[in-house]
Structure formats: structure tokens, C-alpha cells
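User: quick one, fold this
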Amino acid sequence: MRIFFSITFALIVLALITCIIVARKSKRENSRAVAFFLACLIPPVIGNLFIIASDVLMLSTVGFYIYFVGMDLVVYGMARFTYKYCGFEWKHVRVIDIALLTILLVDVIQIMVNIHFGNAFAIEMIREYDSDFYRIIPFFGQTFHRVLDYAIIGLIVILFVYKTIITPRVYAEKYLIILIVMIAIIIWESIYIFTRTPVDRSMIGFGVFGLLVFFFTLYYRPLRLLDRLLAALASKMPESLCFFDRSKRCIWINSQAAQFFGIEQRQYEQVPSLILEKFPDFDKNEGKEWKKTFEMGKGSNYESYEIERHEVFDDRGHSVGSFLSIRDVTAEQKNLQREAYNATHDPLTGVKNRAGYNHIMNNVDLSKCFLVLFDLDSFKQTNDVHGHDVGDKVLVEVANVVKKHFREEDELCRIGGDEFAIVLHNVDKNIVDEVSKRIKDINDELAGEDNGLPTPTISAGGAFGEGAENSEELLNNADHALYQTKFSGKRGFTLFESR
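Assistant:
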């Protein structure tokens, strides 16, 4: 992946240099503005090349500074190009240009002083694509940089929108094309910023945008050619994209969507039925704009997809179609589930830990709850004589045997050291004799185990939630009953009885 993006960015730089040479030699109107803009695109691409190609902190750091300063150059070059391309006379924009240049120079200075003051960003190393990469941790200065660049680009977009509206349709295409691609690049760059990936794929888009500016400024051609360029740009995006007309007929999909649905890219007419087949609840979503996560299957067959629907409108506010973005978030969801599981489960025994127990007790119906508290008799001696590794194996053995003797809905928790709790839901007074028998059976089974480990026994105490003011009092009651079992000779069960 590192080699692929490095080669891609290097080729973009070569393509931009070639276009600059051609533009400088061209006698066409606006050729100098185009050459200047293309030259401004080269530093951030080179900066990204440094960031991606190197796993050395120093080179990556240099790459980030080149990239951020280069983005200010891109914004300024884009503004200069806009003045020329949109036909604004210099006397009308001179003051604006000077103000713009001054603000951007201030931004360049505050980025560069980050070397000493750390005001803009810090750098951290992450692991992606089986390689070490570096990414920034943004601070106030970086936020200022982004807001400034976005604000200027937003004004440029407004100028292009204005020219597209007031220009006769036969000539509006050259503005509309660049406007569409500019918005696509802004969205792409925003995805990079918010996902914080180490590889800024949007620079590929900026490179394509520069080449597109070169082409449409100096070698204007019909819209059909641009369609192919935009399709190629959409095909580079990681999401599956499906475009629909007003009648909800699919009119185009990118290669990722074709692969996702298992069809050829030209077979896009099948997409509506394939969507319903893949996501049965899809047609229940209403509204023009929505975002939803669809989850299917369990275990190894679990899949999760994030789908966004966006409506597209014309300048009169009429819907002209829509598009879907389908993103596979299975790995992300599994990671979240794994983190949630690890946070509430004991890694040694696999049962719930103290946090899991607290969660249970925060939501339990005390009036229908019975709590059993038990620990291992003389467990400290087991650790002292045989070592903690053997002690851990004994804990695992006890947890496994206890789970066998209780219901699936009964929740076993390791709440500390060799102390465990069992939460029994929806029980009545008759449960006491049953629990006492199960504790005896557990001790009998543990005594009969022939696995080379010390023979453990457990002592238990139980208490009904009914009558306890809260879960803490219930735990204290069960602990008091456990103490009575210990006092009476261990290896047994005692019910707490209030006095």
C-alpha cells in the first residue's frame, strides 16, 4: 500500500510538472494562472509523498510542514486562478488578493512556529496496512489553518456557483464541471480529516483536479469526457457508490459497488433488487436524507454496513436523483463489540468481571433476585505453595464447573481475586434448597477431578434481593452469609437471614 501511494503521488507530480511546462508555453488566455495553480499543487503532493513513503519520524515531520504550507499555496493559487477564469478584472480584486495573501502568510508563520511552540499539531505513530505511519494530533493552530482554508475555498465555490448561474447554459459547462469536481474534492478532503487516516487520498483528487483545470482551461471539450473523469474519480473512493434517477432506477455504480453486489459494472439495473435482497429492511427507510447501520448474521457470519442516502437537487430545488454510499464497517463494529466485551469480562476465566457485575446490579430487579457469593477455601495457601500459575488454573477450573451447575440465564461474575458472585433472576423462596444442593454438587465434582491440580473447595453465602434497599446492601448480606459458612467450617452454603 505504501509503495502504491508513493508511486501514485510521484506520477501526479510528474504529470503536474508536464502540464506546467505545456501551460507556460501556451499562448491561450489564462495559461499563466493555470501554470501557477498547478505549481502550487506540487508542494502538498510532495509533502504527502514524504509522509507516506517514510517510516522515519523526521522525514514524516518535514512532510507534514511541506503539506500544510503547500495547502495554503493551493488555496492562494486556486484564488488567483478563479480571478482569471471567472473573468474578474484585477482592479476589482487587487485589495482582496493582498488581504488574502496576508492572511495566508500569517497562517504559514503560525504553522512554522509550531516547531518551537507546539501550537498547531503533534505527531503520533500508528500501525496501518502492516506498516508504521505517522499522523497528526491537531491543536488550535491546525484548527485555524483548516478553518481558514475551508473558508477561502468556500468563497471560491460561491464565485463558481455565481458564474455558473449567470452564464448562458452553452458556456456554463466549463464552470459547472470545475465546480462539481471542486466540491467532490472538498468532501474527499473532509473524509480524510475526520477519519484521520495516515494516507491523504484526497491529494490524488487534488492532482486530478489540477489536471482537469489544465484540460478545461486550455483544451475545453464536451461534457461526456468529464463524465468519464468523474467516474474514474468516484471509482477511486473506498465506498460503494450507487446513483439513481428520479424514478429510483439505478443509472451508474462504481467498481466497488459492482464487486460488492457480485455483478458487472454495466449491470447496474439489477442494483435495486440486489439491495433489497442484501438488506431486507432497506425499503422501511423514509426521507430524502438518511444514514443507518445494517447488521446481519452472528459470530463469524456477522456483517455490518453503514449506508447513507443523499438526494440531489437542481437549482430550482427539484429532485433530480439520489445516490447511496455503502461502507463496510464490520471490522469497526467487531472492534467495538470486542472492546465492550473486554471491558466487562475477566480475561482469565471468561466470566464477567466487577464492571460487568456492577452493570448487572444497576439494572436488576432486586425483588426477584437472589445473589450467591462464594470464594475458594484456603486459596492463598494454594498460591503460596504451588504458585500463581497453578492458582490461575484452579480459578478457571472452578469457574467452568460452577457454570455447569447453574442455569444459562444465571450470571457468574469474578468480582475480585478468588471471590465470585452468581446473580439469579426471577427466583422464589424455593431456590434456597436448590442452590445449597448445587454448591454441594460443585464441591463433589471438584473433589473428583483428576487433573494434577490441587483440589479446591468453595464456601458460599446467599441472600434474597427482596428486602435489601440497594445492591450494595444485598452484597453485604451475601458476604455476611459467606462469612457464616467460613466460620462454620467452610465448604458449604449459608442463607442470610435478617434479624
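User: anything notable?
Assistant: The longest strand covers residues 303-313.
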